[in-house]
User: What shape does this take?
Amino acid sequence: MTTSKSRYLFPLLIGLGIIFGTVVVYLQIHEYEKQLSQSYKNEISRIFEEIIDRREGRLQTISNSIIGFFEGSKEVTPYEFEVFSTRLFDANSELVNISILDDNKTILYSTPHSEMIGKNFDVLFPSHPTQINGINTMNLEFNMSDLRKIIVSVPFDYFISSDTIPSQTFKLILSSPLDNDLRLYEIFVNNGVINTSNVEFSEKELKNSIDVNVKTELYGHTIKKEYVLKYLIWTEIFEPNNTFANLFLIIGVIASGIIPIMIYISNSVLSKKNTELEQIKKSKDEFVTMIIHDLKNPLVPILSVSDILLSNMLGDLNSKQVDRIKMIKSSAMSLQNLIQDLLDSQKAELGKLHLNLSKNNLSEILQNTLNKFKMDMDKKEILVETNIVNDVSCICDKIRIEQVISNLLLNSLDFVSEKIGKISVSLESNNHTAKITIRDNGLGIEKDQLDKLFVKFYQIKNNTIRHYGGSGLGLAVSNEIVALHGGKIWAESDGIGKGSTFFIELPLKE
Assistant: This one.
């Protein structure tokens, strides 16, 4: 009888032990999920606040550029303002309109909606939110020293847009605490399907949402107050995932041989959380991209004023003045190209370097790119030989392929010697591929460094070559562009002092 009881008591104790352990682990996983979800929401809230702060700083930079532009001249002509504002819009495509008002609120300058010039701004846009060309906008007011005012109009998704949220399913509402929580912007994205009206949150979604409230220093011209941005944001990744914990509890109660399954579930949980952490990293990378993008704005007034001065609109310049201004413009354009390389490199890392494909004549692209460097090649007195077959049709992004060819030509131009330098450019094709070859008799490259040329930030480790500088980005970006076309790019050299040859091979898609 005692033996019989022991036979049942031991399995019962084992079963109770497994159940007890399963419940303990279940409660720990459940609590961990809650903490991890809250930590993720806190991190996203912080990133969004930083993004709003950077966007606000960008608007301040834009207004300061405009103020500096007007204060640097006794009288700004419409042509000068058009040149300046065009560059501003090129660097800040999210802007809707820029207006300059006198003390009677009459519009003196307006871009791109020049038809508004001469009209009273408050008469045109008496209510809030303002609608310009079908877009609901915030009208941000900045004071100039002579009582004139700058009105920068931006859309309500300027600060946090759908691209900012690392999820395929989310809801966002931007409301104004100054107007009884008037909804300024709302959007519901559900796996690519977008709805921008009557967005509502369920009780569960409200419980797992975040509030981002930021009081800005941006003065609203229409509301006569500083904007307070109040965001309510929900995304599916904010919700704690208790599926695995519940499944773990059920299986633990039913069976004792659950250890392999528990390991599998734990790995699944960790994998999901790693994915969520990658999404956080992606948001941070996009934040870095935005900072690099902001570096463009200070170059706008430098390039604009340089163009205006060189056009002799403000008076004739002597030869020394022209040379100095050209030097300023050249340095600014070099910095602009470096910033563009940084942006392209960051986009490539985020998988957002996209192509605009169309049918193009590769022969013409190559010849036109060569023509752009003719003046520099003539100045250096180098020999250029070409062997370009005619009418090679290729499905490609014309601008991006020009960028790649320009990087290689500039590289050769830098490393060949004056008067004795030689660059050979050829284009050949068959039924499937086209090959561009750019060969020079410059300094050359050591063979053990050829494979590293297209790595981001890599620079050749050689004292003879080091003084030529470079960011180490041009060839890396070129490699990404060619790879997106389904082609390949590589270099060959017999060593230092024996020149270099770069090859681009592109598929001929019909």
User: Anything to note?
Assistant: The first strand starts at residue 97 and ends at 101.
